[in-house]
């Protein structure tokens, strides 16, 4: 086996697990005559670590046994701990452990290790589809930056038709949202993203959490699809033609303790009303974020809430799913 290290830049557990099936032998070669031991370093903790260890055990009992490969997984703590330990091992510092065969890293760390000849080309371990997805995403981002430079030099009005909200947000000062051949809403791009106004506009700008809304008071709305009563401060005017409410996935807040003084709003009562006791339905990992799908514990047939949290925030709450989340009134989007 090539003794250079396999590094998965910004990879999640799924990609790490996928790489395991190709390690220990050259592509296309069957069972190794000599036992192959692979070490994998991660920054996973809690439920993530349990899930990844289960994948490793499954590999060892199936493909690993077939190909005479044994994988040993070790959590190094946080992302920063992992980076520090990897660099110490690469530099052969006194007391440092041996370099792992597989580990996760950010791009700057990967670059340093590549310059030191410590990484191996993964091309033979990835399908053409997997490679094309990465390359397309990279080239698209680079092309967008080049286009923005060109438009700044052009200094004339340009009409751009796009289905990418990232492109629209970064490149357009004004936006028109169309639905079924009709103008749904128009205005300044950032203002539309902050307050899309309609259900279709909210969806097109990336709002994943939308519920039917019933105005139950001057400052109250019942989100029927989530089974949550929402209370708003006095300065918030709830329109009479309201039909839905929404909240973006990154605006949901975890509540570690219900007794803690968490947010300075109108009253503690409003905090209690804008919360949901939840249970985890599904969790997935992105390079910089965690995605959690949460269900209301009320027992009713409710729609789930999508919650997006950064890796740093996830670590700050101990990488545990909170029992309760808050939907801050200032981030609720009123829709029609």
Describe this structure in words.
The protein has 336 residues and is of the alpha+beta class. It is built from eleven helices and 16 strands. The chain has helices at residues 13-20, 46-61, 63-67, 79-90, 107-115, 128-154, 165-171, 189-194, 199-204, 268-273, 311-316; strands at residues 6-9, 36-42, 69-75, 102-105, 174-179, 182-188, 209-217, 220-223, 228-231, 244-247, 253-255, 275-285, 289-296, 305-310, 324-326, 333-335. Strands 9-8-7-10-16 form a five-stranded antiparallel β-sheet. Strand 7 and strand 8 form a beta hairpin. Helix 1 (13-20) packs parallel to helix 2. It is globular. The N and C termini lie far apart (61 Å). Mean pLDDT is 80; it is low at 6-18, 20-29 and 258-271.
Structural class, judged by helices and strands? alpha+beta
Residue runs with pLDDT of under 50 for 5 or more positions: 6-18, 20-29, 258-271
Q: Proportion of β residues?
A: 25-35%
Question: Radius of gyration in whole Å, from Cα?
Answer: 24 Å
The helix-strand sequence is EHEHHEHEHHHEEHHEEEEEHEEEHEE
What is the count of helical runs? 11
Number of extended strands = 16
Amino- and carboxy-terminal Cα gap? 61 Å
- From the spread of the alpha carbons, the general shape counts as globular
| Sheet with the most strands, sense and barrel status | 5 strands, antiparallel
Give the overall pLDDT as a whole number: 80
Give the % helix: 25-40%
Q: Record the strand order, biggest sheet.
A: 9-8-7-10-16
């Amino acid at each position: 086996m090539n003794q250079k290290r396999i590094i998965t830049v910004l990879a999640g557990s799924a990609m790490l697990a996928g790489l395991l099936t190709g390690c220990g032998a050259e592509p296309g070669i069957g069972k190794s005559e000599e036992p192959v031991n692979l070490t994998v370093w991660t920054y996973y903790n809690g439920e993530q670590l349990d899930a990844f260890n289960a994948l490793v055990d499954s590999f060892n009992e199936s493909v690993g046994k077939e190909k005479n490969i044994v994988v040993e997984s070790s959590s190094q703590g946080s992302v920063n701990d992992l980076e520090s330990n990897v660099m110490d091992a690469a530099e052969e510092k006194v007391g440092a452990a041996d370099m792992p065969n597989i580990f996760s890293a950010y791009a700057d760390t990967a670059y340093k290790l590549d310059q030191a000849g410590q990484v191996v080309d993964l091309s033979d371990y990835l399908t053409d589809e997997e490679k094309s997805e990465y390359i397309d995403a990279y080239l698209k981002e680079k092309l967008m930056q080049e286009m923005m430079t060109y438009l700044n030099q052009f200094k004339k009005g340009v009409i751009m038709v796009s289905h990418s909200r990232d492109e629209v947000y970064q490149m357009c000062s004004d936006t028109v949202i169309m639905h079924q051949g009709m103008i749904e809403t128009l205005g300044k791009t950032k203002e539309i993203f902050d307050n899309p106004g309609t259900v279709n506009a909210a969806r097109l700008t990336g709002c994943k959490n939308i519920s039917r809304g019933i105005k139950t008071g001057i400052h109250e709305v019942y989100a029927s699809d989530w089974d949550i009563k929402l209370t708003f401060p006095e300065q918030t005017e709830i329109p009479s033609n309201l039909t839905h409410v929404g909240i973006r996935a990154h605006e949901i807040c975890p509540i570690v303790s219900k007794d803690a003084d968490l947010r300075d709003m109108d009253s503690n009562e409003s905090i209690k009303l804008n919360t949901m006791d939840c249970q985890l339905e599904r969790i997935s990992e992105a390079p910089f974020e965690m995605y959690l799908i949460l269900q209301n514990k009320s027992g009713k047939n409710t729609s789930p809430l999508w919650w997006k949290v950064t890796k740093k925030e996830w670590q700050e709450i101990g990488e545990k799913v909170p029992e309760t989340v808050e939907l801050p009134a200032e981030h609720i989007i009123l829709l029609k």
